[in-house]
Design brief:
Number of helices: 2
Low-confidence stretches: none
Mean pLDDT: 76
Shape: rod-shaped
Distance between the termini: 48 Å
Helix content: 10-25%
Strand content: 5-15%
Length: 85
Amino acid sequence: MQKLIQLNRAMEKEGQEKHLGEGHGLGRGGGQGKNKGGAFGPSGFCVCAKCGHKVRHQQGIKCTTIKCPKCGHTMVREELLNQKR
């Protein structure tokens, strides 16, 4: 950290405007990833995007790893499906 401060001071003396170490490093999405970093929690449903069949979400198991018991299509989290509509 001390070397970074010294480098910033040296750059300031040279008249350079770029200051290292002052950014947040979060990038375009603010570092939050999909769903703005929020999880949907343990409750809710997994829904088939093809036929609409619902099954209760099981904690620790992603809906996208479950196949619809009726048609075999990949399930998605109900909240995600509602966001896209």
